[in-house]
């Protein structure tokens, strides 16, 4: 019902995606990876939509990463395949993983423990299918994964590859360089990218020396894949995700420029409060998330075209906007007028919206429905 | 498919509601208001479900507050009536408000400006129906509303009541004492409740003296309505919302006890990382929200039964748990084992879940589907 109409007519708050910017972001990453001889296995967690996955895979619908089983089911039902569920194997979801592994050409899981491998072996696949297993390494990010220097990493990789080759196959090693989010600027990002890549290459060497065949290695994060180091070309693939949308966090870290941010939350002025020099807008944390808290000089977001405004407080459905200095000219912001918020964290903001309005130069061209839940 | 099964079998993260606790919370508030001679007009924004509304209205499905038009549509379609859309009239949603006003016995809107009143008058209702309008007062909360001492408050109330009585009726005055959330303990809560109530009563006196008939006055917030002051009995109604679930914020403020918190997020252990003395669990901010940040000694939530644990970090789908002190006994938390997180902010946590699993002593008895969007 909204296609063909102007985004300025949308009920607010509304999550809008500039299709041209998102497409350019997707194509640039494909080109960048192609130039390095790397496969791009884009992560779906930021947008969780079939249309976003289509753009990010260049139309192939093959070779993606997901963070939840709900995403895995959704993308599988939408015709995607070669899906890596890059999450420490959740034992409560083993049966559903088995069903996907039987049904898809390549549904792949991730483990970082012997217990998880034992779970897979207890749930043997039928019809000659094997579990396709990536091993998670922690190359400095400090979340999931075995440290690449930990002797148990080699032991686990060997067990995955060799313990029961008719049941389980080692598909690759996987590391998330989320520690790039602590960086400021390209040199710092590239230092983390280099350290992660070096760790992965060293571990691949360890595997070769130990006679453990491992066909793939994958690192990722939008910052590192936006500014790859040459050595990343010696890996087989990368798996960034946020880059299709980008956000102020990526701008702050140094992944991209403000013009690369494809998303906004449209909001309207719903109140004037001169006694406290504030506007209220109809976007609270329910439409934006709290992720901008304390991160930006402009408060929870940046009001596009108004760098002199601050979004200083959010409750569930209200945002408080005030000038950085001086007295607000309320006449410039009549009740009902539209503002566009550039979000700090696109993944978190997208997660608050049941529909995304995709536009070309301000005209809605599509609505995308993300999957939710687990 | 989950009814009849144990909550311990649910895929995680899972938002679970203890039906007995939620029902007791709902009944207590009805009794408390009844004892004061106050109508309870419960707010739906915390749970956004028909079932929650049924409990909170004592089965009448009459007399509720909503914060979004999506909630208004949803509850109207679910057989609710006497619905107050307690949000500064959003001009982009006027047509839909008019449709609800024509269809329901009593769909009510809220304004705090002459501009909003003018919008209503430009969209006159048909068939002799009148806009039922509440005027929002700011009695110290500092969000929407006119200050009760502001001469323009009386002017606006008079205009609503008298300017076009065949088109618009003044239904009442409304204040949200959200400033109770800055309180610590019952005396502070009651001081805010008293100040808000006194302001409302003074303004009702001003209206009477000015010959402006105003049939209703409503204040609310879960803290103030959990510990009402006697003067609140001189108002006509109250509109708390969070109390059906409660959360650690309410416990911290002093609204309730830990045993009154009806909700949990169930999560499972997905990783052991002895090198950093941490567990990973499968609930990140996507299942909990970031609202606990910096609010609790136990991190983003309280792990039920384990006050010695801290949920120290959240990414989208991962939570990092570590002991407050000492070395974690990983043997007590095997991979796949279940933990229950008590959330800091139930409204924010509920907003992350597409389904709530409602249980009686650990057996799922219902699933509730909240409405989302705007």
Automatic annotation (TrEMBL), chains A, B:
SMART domains assigned: D-ser_dehydrat
Keywords: Lyase, Metal-binding, Pyridoxal phosphate, Zinc
Cofactors demanded by this protein: pyridoxal 5'-phosphate; Zn(2+)
InterPro entries: Ala_racemase_N (IPR001608), D-amino_acid_metab_enzyme (IPR051466), D-ser_dehydrat-like_dom (IPR026956), D-ser_dehydrat-like_sf (IPR042208), PLP-binding_barrel (IPR029066)
The reaction(s) this protein catalyses: D-serine = pyruvate + NH4(+)
BP terms from Gene Ontology: D-serine catabolic process
Domain of life: Eukaryota
Pfam families: Ala_racemase_N, D-ser_dehydrat
EC main group: lyase
EC number: 4.3.1.18
Membrane spanning stretches: none
Protein family according to the UniProt entry: Belongs to the DSD1 family.
Name of this protein: D-serine dehydratase
Taxonomic path: Eukaryota, Metazoa, Chordata, Craniata, Vertebrata
């Amino acid at each position: 019902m909204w296609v063909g109409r102007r985004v300025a007519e949308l009920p607010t708050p509304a999550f809008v995606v500039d299709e041209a910017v998102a497409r350019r972001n997707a194509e640039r990453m494909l080109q960048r990876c192609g130039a390095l001889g790397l496969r791009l296995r884009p992560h779906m967690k930021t947008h969780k939509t079939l249309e976003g996955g289509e753009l990010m895979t260049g139309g192939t619908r093959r070779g993606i990463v997901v963070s939840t089983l709900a995403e895995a089911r959704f993308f599988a039902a939408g015709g995607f395949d070669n899906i890596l569920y890059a999450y420490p194997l959740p034992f409560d979801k083993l049966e559903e993983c088995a069903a996907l592994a039987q049904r898809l050409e390549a549904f792949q899981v991730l483990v970082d423990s012997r217990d998880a491998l034992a779970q897979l072996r207890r749930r043997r696949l039928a019809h000659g299918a094997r579990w396709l297993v990536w091993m998670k390494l922690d190359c400095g990010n400090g979340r999931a994964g075995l440290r690449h220097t930990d002797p148990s990493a080699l032991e686990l990789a060997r067990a995955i590859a060799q313990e029961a080759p008719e049941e389980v196959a080692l598909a690759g090693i996987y590391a998330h360089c989320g520690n790039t989010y602590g960086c400021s600027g390209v040199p710092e990002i590239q230092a983390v990218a280099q350290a992660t890549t070096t760790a992965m290459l060293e571990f691949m060497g360890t595997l070769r020396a130990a006679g453990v065949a491992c066909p793939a290695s994958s690192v990722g994060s939008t910052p590192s894949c936006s500014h790859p180091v040459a050595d990343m070309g010696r890996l087989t693939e990368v798996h960034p995700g946020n880059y299709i949308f980008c956000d102020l966090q990526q701008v702050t870290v140094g992944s991209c420029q403000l013009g690369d941010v494809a998303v906004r939350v449209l909001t309207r002025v719903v109140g004037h409060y001169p006694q406290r020099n504030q506007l209220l807008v109809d976007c609270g944390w329910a439409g934006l998330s709290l992720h901008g808290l304390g991160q930006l000089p402009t408060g929870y977001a940046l009001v596009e075209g108004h760098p002199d405004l601050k979004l200083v407080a959010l409750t569930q459905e209200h945002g408080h906007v005030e000038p950085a200095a001086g007295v607000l000219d309320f006449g410039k912001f009549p009740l009902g007028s539209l503002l566009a918020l550039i979000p700090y964290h696109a993944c978190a903001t997208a997660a608050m919206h049941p529909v995304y309005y995709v536009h070309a130069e301000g005209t809605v061209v599509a609505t995308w429905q993300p999957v939710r839940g687990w």
